[in-house]
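Hi W.,

Here's what went into the run:
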Amino acid sequence: DGGITQSPKYLFRKEGQNVTLSCEQNLNHDAMYWYRQDPGQGLRLIYYSQIVNDFQKGDIAEGYSVSREKKESFPLTVTSAQKNPTAFYLCASSIERAAFFGQGTRLTVV
Amino acid sequence: QKEVEQNSGPLSVPEGAIASLNCTYSDRGSQSFFWYRQYSGKSPELIMFIYSNGDKEDGRFTAQLNKASQYVSLLIRDSQPSDSATYLCAVNIGVGGGNKLTFGTGTQLKVEL
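Here's what came out:
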């Protein structure tokens, strides 16, 4: 069953903690992306990767880090430097031009 | 100026009517255009894409692109209550960064019985 799997679905973080969001795809797509969505807002690009072992900052990369050691995996770490991390995080992958999304992780700071 | 602009709505249409959703973009070099549907609390789902000027039809959906006017629209015929969602316009700017998509803030559509 092909698709993009994000985990966990819900995540709670204490102030000052780093947390890592998982994104795995078995679609054999080269490109992967992380977006952030705040209530009533569109999607803002955090990081993207076109190939393994390479990634670029998006529009709001500060306070986030990523790695791309395998084609199938693109984890996102939300560091303590991200001052307002509460949001809906969406991972996507693409082939050619269109992007397809996972089910999202809702992160809340407690 | 935002790169991709949409009216936030809500846009209310009666069941069975045509819903018209609009999007403008700022980069004339944009090459690919997408419409995503997002239900509340869910992730976006791709429903249409268009690359060339003109119309593209898929079932009840028609995407329209006018590159000269930097305008892309989505028409939904015979609107159903299940079409009630937020519709996101996305544009592939296509400059250096590969397939990076830039999204509008979305238009909320409400189909009323």
